[in-house]
Amino acid sequence: MIILASSSPRRKELLGLLSLSFEVIPSHADETIEESLPPGEIVEELSFRKAREVLGAHPKITEGIVIGSDTIVVLNERKLGKPSSPEEAEQMLHALQGGPHYVYSGIACLDAASGKEAVSHKRTRVYMKELSAAQIRRYVATGEPMDKAGAYAIQGRGAALVDRIEGDYFNVVGMSVSLLADMLGEFGIEIP
Ligand SMILES: Cc1cn([C@H]2C[C@H](O)[C@@H](COP(=O)(O)OP(=O)(O)OP(=O)(O)O)O2)c(=O)[nH]c1=O
Fold this sequence. Notes:
Main location: cytoplasm
Number of domains: 1
Largest sheet: 7 strands, mixed
CATH topology: Maf protein
Strand content: 25-35%
Number of helices: 6
CATH class: Alpha Beta
Bound molecules: thymidine-5'-triphosphate
Family: Belongs to the Maf family. YhdE subfamily.
Helix content: 25-40%
Distance between the termini: 15 Å
Number of strands: 7
Order of helices and strands: EHEHEEHEEHEHH
Keywords: Cytoplasm, Hydrolase, Nucleotide metabolism
GO molecular function: hydrolase activity
Structural class: alpha/beta
Radius of gyration: 17 Å
């Protein structure tokens, strides 16, 4: 059995690409973290917390693999999560437009029966086009940025804002399917 500890519809779709049967249980883990930590450590720690919280809150889960994941956008030293208001979304997009940034996504897998744990992350470079204030305002007005790290969705209308990427596309959307497949392999789960 596989349990995805996530409320993200994107991650559900991404795990679905592997044609494995799984259940979704949203995680309510505390995501407060020291922002000065390296971004790879942040997404790995938060991925772990999400998976552990679901396992801890559901004592009936005695076997199977619990998967947690977390995504942040990093611009120079600045870490951008999900915007808390349309104004913050506009500010994030103003900062990101016209240049490159990194998207980090972590994945944690916990084996409920054995207690075995694994965690890893990937980094993708995203180059955003130059955007006018009017373009940014129109995009924020669609509502799409509000539940997305860095205030854009590359898989949606946000695709029009991106010039190109270097690295794994799915890592930008929320979880590297390729990395996940390798990690599940370490837990004895073969992809059909
Ligand atoms: C950069 C980017 C992020 N995102 C999304 C992926 C994540 O859902 C979200 C980052 O927030 P997260 O805190 O990583 O995840 P979440 O709160 O949506 O879901 P959960 O913690 O329950 O697993 O941003 C996109 O959908 N497209 C993008 O291009």
